[in-house]
Amino acid sequence: MTRAVVFAYHNVGVRSLKVLLAHGVRIELVVTHEDNPDENIWFGSVAQLCRDYDIPFITPTDPNVPDVEARIAALAPDFVFSFYYRHMLKAPILAAPSRGAFNLHGSLLPKYRGRVPVNWAVIHGETETGVSLHVMNIKPDNGAIVDQFAVPILPDDTAHDVFDKVAVAGELCLNRALPQLIAGTATLTPQDLSQGGYFGGRKMEDGRIDWQQSALQLHNLVRAVTHPYPGAFSDTPRGRLTLWRTRRIDNAPSCPDTAASVLWAASDKLWLRCADGGLLRILAADLDGTPLTSGALNAPLEF
């Protein structure tokens, strides 16, 4: 029987663990995270899955410590897998499995190596992303690729929409590749790292709107950081404006006569003209903590 130690979190972790179980892999131990009470937990629980399936699990603050490393080494697994686990694994853990350590990453490597790849892909207006199952080594996301599975990013998809697709793509990719890994027949393709870049994590402040951006750039930011993320925002004399949903349009009624970027109400709708002259319809927004409607915006806001 194939035996594995799995580092997992999030929806991708839940789905991927179920794939391993479906293929008869004996999961000796799962390492996951304690949920952060300050984080919006909108995703599935790996810990609960482990309880449901009677799989031993631990939630160390740092997995790269002697007692965790020794426990994994003593289990002598065939494989170590990482499915959306948030910490890098160091050499002692990567050396523990006899048949290799593999990670499922949420992009088409070598593009978008590093943190929050789905959000970055949406911000940059990509029309496609996906998942990559690859060899883990001590450098992030640069090991040889076992398999990839692509998904489209539609023009109005939010990061949440895309992540839902990526979670399913991860399941499909792992389900397709796992038999070859178990049989020892998988093909490993080295990455050409010159064809992609590394991206870091994002903070709430990274959602602050730069009013010199084009309508397309702003639309991409909004859909990349909308719910369940903190949103695209700007501080105004009337309070903080947060844009949650936008749609690119070609024409808008009664545009104010100003050279600035401007938000205004007309025909019972909200409209925004950006620095490049491009237009957005505002489908959902808050102002000073209250949902913004066309009736509540009694004068245009200039930026």
Automatic annotation (TrEMBL):
InterPro entries from the UniProt entry: Formyl_trans_C, Formyl_transf_N, Formyl_transf_N_sf, Formyl_transferase-like_C_sf
Output the superkingdom of the source species.
Bacteria
Q: Which residues form the Formyl transferase C-terminal domain?
A: 204-289
Pfam families attached here? Formyl_trans_C, Formyl_trans_N
Formyl transferase N-terminal domain span: 25-176
Matching NCBIfam families: PRK06988.1
Q: What is this protein called?
A: Formyltransferase
Organism, by scientific name, is: Jeongeupia naejangsanensis
Name the lineage: Bacteria, Pseudomonadati, Pseudomonadota, Betaproteobacteria, Neisseriales
